[in-house]
Input
Amino acid sequence: MSDSSSTSAIRRPAWAIGSGWVLAFMCAIAGWRLFGLLPAYRTSHDILQPPGGAYWLGTNDIGQDVLVGLLRGLPNTILVPVVVAAATLLISGCLAALAATRGGFVQALILRTVEVLQVLPSMFVLLLLSAWMRPGFPGVVILLTLTSWHDDIRVLRAIFLREMTRESLHYARVNGAGWAYCFRRHLLPSMWPAVMAIYVQNVRGGIMKVAGLGFLGIIDPRLTNWGGMMQDGLAYLYGPAWLWLLLPPALALSLFIGVLILAGQNLEERSLANPTSPR
Amino acid sequence: MLTEGAWVVQVHISGNRQYRRFLRSLIDRLVVFMGLIILTFLLPRSMPGDPLELLFSSDITRGITAAEVDALRIQYGLDGTLAEQFIRYLSALSRGNLGFSFHHAAPVSDLLMGAVPWTLLLIVGALPLYLPGGLAFGIEAGRRPHSLRDRMITGCIIIVASIPPFAAAVFLLLAFGVIWPIFPVGGGEPLFPPSTWPERIPEIARHAVLPTVALAFHEFARFFFLARGEAISLSARPFITNARARGVGGWPLLVHYYGRSILPMALARLGDSIATLFGAVFFVEVVFSYPGVGSLIYTAMLERDYVLLQGAMLGMAVIVLTMNWILDALASQLASRG
Output
C-alpha cells in the first residue's frame, strides 16, 4: 500500500507538491499558534496604504497590515475545518462501523436518524446558532461538528460493508486473527484512500462554511478570518483599495480550496483504481 | 390475460411502495420541522439572562417601564412554566403568527411574504443556468476522460469550484457593476420602480442577472462533476460503444444516450442542491443587497432582531423542506421508471 502511494506521488508531481504544500502550512500554523511568533494585528494611523515597503500587502481602513491579517486568519480559516473534518470522520466512522457490524435495531436507528438529519438544512441551523452565540475558535469547531457529523455515515457504512466481504479478511478471521488486527491490517489499509477522499472533501466544505460565517460577521470578531477580511474590503469597491483588500484573502481561499479539490480527485481516482479493491 | 393481470398487480405494488415512501419522507420533514421549532423555542430561553431583555436589548426599547415589560412578557408568552410557554408558542405558530419585529414595525409573516418571492426568483432563475450547463459540460468532458478537451474543461471547472460563493458574488459585482457597469450593483429593482408591469419586468430581470449567475456559479461545478463521473462509467457501457459504432455522434449521442441515463441521477441530487442553494442565497443577497429573505435574515442578525431571525428561519425551513420533498418524490418517480 505504502509502495503504491509513493510511486503515484512521484508519477503525479502536482499531488506531491500539493500535499507537501498543505503539510508545510500545517506545520507553520502549528508553530505560530504555539509560539506566538506572529506580529500583532494592531491598528495604526497608516490607513488604506497601498502595498509597498513597510506593508507588503498594504493596510485596511483601520491601518491593520493585510499580510499579518492573512497569516493570522490562516489557522482560523484552515485549522478549524481540519479539526472539524477529523472529528466528524471519527464520529461517523464509529457509527458507520456500528451500523455495519451490528445490524438490526442499532443499524435501523442510526440510518433512520441520518435520514432525518439529511433533510435538515444544516446551514440554517449553523447560521441561527452562530448568530445567537457569536462563537470563538472552540465554539465554531463544535457548531460545525454538530451540524455535519451525520453527512458521511451512509457512504462510510457502504465502504465498510464492501470491505467486510473481502476474502482476505475471511481468510485472516478463519486463521484466528482478532478484530483489532483485522481492522489495522485489512480493513483500514483498503478503506484508506476512500476515507481520505471524504476527509479532504469535508475540509474543503468546512473552509467554505467558516469563511462564510466570517463573511457574514457572525463569529467572534476577534477571530480574524479570510471571509471576514473580504467583508471588510467590500466597502472599498469604488477605488483602488479592493486590489489589496479583496484579492489577497480571496486568492488565498481559492488556492487552498483548489488544491484540496485536486487532492480529493486524486484520492478518489486512486481509491477507484486500487487494483486490490473489488469495484 | 394472465400476464396483463400480473402486470397490474405489479404496478399496484410499486405504486403502494411509492406512496409509503412519499409518506415516510413527509414524516421525516415533519420531525425535522418540529426539531427546528423546539430549537427556536429553546434558544432564547437557554441563553444566560432574561430572554425578554435579550430579545429587546436595543436602543429603541430602552425607555420602557416595568408595567410595559410585564405586558410584553405576557404578549411574548414568556410567563408561566416552560411547558405552558411551549404550548402557547405552538398554537401561535399554527395560527401563522411568527411574531412581531420591532425594528421593522411589522409582523414577521408580512415581512417574509414580501421577501420570499425575490428569493424564489433567484433560485428558480439559477436552475436553468447550472443544471443543463453543468450536465452538458460534464458529459462532454467525461466522454473521453483524460483527453485534451477533458483536461481543459475540468481544469476550468476546478478553478470555478474553488471560488467560494460569496467571493464569486463579490467579483461579479466588481466586474460587471463597478469596473464595467453594465448591470445594477444592488437591489431588486430601481429605487422608483415603473408603475406598469410591462415596464417593471425588464427592470426586475436586469437586476436579477448578476445575483442569479453568482448563485448558479457554484452548483454548476457540482453538477459538472456528477455528470463527468457518470459519463466516464457510461462510456465503458456496450450501448454507448454500439451507438458510436453505428455512427451516432455529436448532439444526439449527448442528449439521447448520455443525457437520458444521467437525468434521474441529476434530479435525485437536485433535492440536496435546493438546500445548498438556500444556504448560498444568503451570501448572494447580502453582497447584492437583494431584497430577499437572505438580506432580511442578515439585517436581523446585525440588528440582533431575534424575533425576526427565528420567524424567518422557520419560514425558510418550511419552503426548503417542501421543495426538496417534491423534488425527492419526482426523482424517485423517475428512477423507478428506469
Chain A is about 75% helix and 0% strand. Residues 221 and 267 of chain A are 36 Å apart (CA to CA). Chain A touches chain B at residues 115-117, 119-121, 123-125, 127-129, 131-132, 207-208, 211-212, 215-218, 227, 230, 234, 237-238, 242, 246, 250, 253-255, 257-258, 261-262 (CB under 8 Å).
